[in-house]
Amino acid sequence: MVHLKDVCMTYPKTGTPAADHLSLDIGEGEFVFLVGSSGSGKTTIIKLLTGEVRAQSGEVMVNGFDLRKIKRRKLPALRRTLGVIFQDFRLIDNKTVFENVAFAMHVIGAGRRAIRERVPYVLKLVGLEGREKRLPQELSGGEQQRVAIARALVNSPSLIIADEPTGNLDPARSLEIMLLLQKINDLGTTVLVVTHEKELVNAFSKRVITLENGCVASDETGGYYGHEA
Amino acid sequence: MKLNKFFYLIKEGIKSIFTHGFMSFACVVVIVACLLIMGNFALLSVNIDHNIKQLESQNEILAFVDETLSEDDARAIGPHLRSLDNVKDVEFVTREEAMKNFISKYEDEDMFSDLTPSTFRNRYVIYLDDLSRMEGTRDDIAAVEGIADVSASLEISRGFIAVRNIVTIVSVVLILILFVISIFIMQNTIKLATFSRREEIGIMKMVGAGNAFIRLPFIIEGLLLGLLGGAIAFFLQMGIYRVLNQRLLASAVGTMIQVIPFATLMYPVLAIFLGLGLLVGTFGSSIAIRNYLKV
């Protein structure tokens, strides 16, 4: 699913290594928290996994794609196997909830009938039934993030990558979103959550990978973030 | 690309014209303004060229017939002259008519009371197709049997040709400069419109949209806005042209110059405006979006 081995990556402008001989593996069906302080390399890993940046050395394999050798025109194919969720939701303002989710299906060339069946199902799954015709700005932050999750989920990706998905939400909404991601994971999708929210990480007994200066500092199943017992 | 995907993208392109109403409006306004500037200048050039051609056509060659020939014999030369290359029209002028024309140029007609038609030669007034070939045609006319002398204003014809060439070169250069400026302005306006949507493009990329999927709605949008701009510019151009034409005809200048009716120019102007609008809209949007596709 995800295989990183001895990955090195330095941004040319800063010269600071964002990934320094980093290795990690995530298997099918896992739920993993990727934690670490600012500048530890969390965002770089997401960019490496989505093909936004390329590693200078090492191996980067995601869903069978070799991201060190992948051609630019093959990137859409990789991204269709992923569901990406962002802190700032990244919804298209002038599209309704339904259209925002259906949009991801149009990208893969899904038919109208398939879209009409699948989108309401996914919206129901994330608890947004009845909100189909609303525009993103008419929804709360938690609801907007649910739309983003629905969009990430709609094409049945094998891996969902959530980059600080609760960063803009209050604790109650954050917990709801995490529970939703847990539910998605229970249905068989691998979930990788990048966060720095200790309380949330510690509330779930999951695998926790801690990054420091571009390296894996710890990797524990059922672990804690910040070693809080 | 699947058919339903294609139709979806066309629908998206049309929809985004309305969802990004202000930027669409700005693009159309810029396209209309640029086309009108170019159009007005081009039409002015076309009319100048037309008037010069009119003046040119009035420039004539006089072929004097040998005075030993009778009027009937002189008239018999007409068909020979008509058959010459570059001869547009031939008009026979008798000795009597020539004398009348001569006298009418002077205020004091009594001064010529002793003048007789025999002083003048029968002659032909010859109009040409192409003024630039006047010298060669003059020689051909001189070689016709029965023609005693030929008078051709070569200097004047050269002057006309020089003026027409200058007007043509200046027009082409100015229209090209205006075209480049227009493309630049339009491309920047479309770039600005695209810039406001870079986040949308980023989202498209992140959910796995390929470049064609992202580009097509933008191109369709640009194409439709370009066509709309071209059509609006055409109708405005028609109005401006007709108003100016009416005012010009009502003024003193109107008696001196000839304005080509818009009906004659309508289809080429429409085709050029729509073609340019389409070209600029399509290329402008595809160039503008190129930078945002490298995510």
How would you summarize this macromolecular structure in one to three sentences?
The complex is a heterodimer of chains A (229) and B (295). With 229 residues, chain A is of the alpha/beta class. Chain A has helices at residues 42-50, 75-79, 97-107, 112-125, 141-153, 171-186, 198-203, and strands spanning 2-10, 17-26, 31-35, 57-62, 65-66, 82-85, 159-163, 190-195, 207-212, 215-221.
Protein topology:
The complex is a heterodimer of chains A (229) and B (295).
Chain A: E1 2-10, E2 17-26, E3 31-35, H1 42-50, E4 57-62, E5 65-66, H2 75-79, E6 82-85, H3 97-107, H4 112-125, H5 141-153, E7 159-163, H6 171-186, E8 190-195, H7 198-203, E9 207-212, E10 215-221
Parallel strand pairs in A: 3-8, 3-9, 6-7, 7-8
Antiparallel strand pairs in A: 1-2, 1-4, 4-5, 9-10
Helix pairs in contact in A: 3-4, 3-5, 4-5, 5-6
Chain B: H1 3-19, H2 21-58, E1 60-65, H3 71-76, H4 78-82, E2 87-93, H5 95-104, E3 123-128, H6 134-142, E4 147-152, H7 154-195, H8 198-206, H9 211-250, H10 262-290
Antiparallel strand pairs in B: 1-3, 1-4, 2-3
Your description of this structure?
- The complex is a heterodimer of chains A (229) and B (295).
- Chain A is of the alpha/beta class and 229 residues long.
- Chain A is 32% helix and 26% strand.
- Chain A has helices at residues 42-50, 75-79, 97-107, 112-125, 141-153, 171-186, 198-203; strands at 2-10, 17-26, 31-35, 57-62, 65-66, 82-85, 159-163, 190-195, 207-212, 215-221.
- In chain A, α5 runs parallel beside α6.
- Chain A is globular, with a radius of gyration of 17 Å.
- Chain B folds into two domains: 3-55 and 159-293, no CATH class; 60-152, Alpha-Beta Plaits (2-Layer Sandwich).
- Chain B is elongated, with a radius of gyration of 31 Å.
- Chain B has ten helices and four strands, in the order ααβααβαβαβαααα.
- Chain B is an alpha+beta fold and 295 residues long.
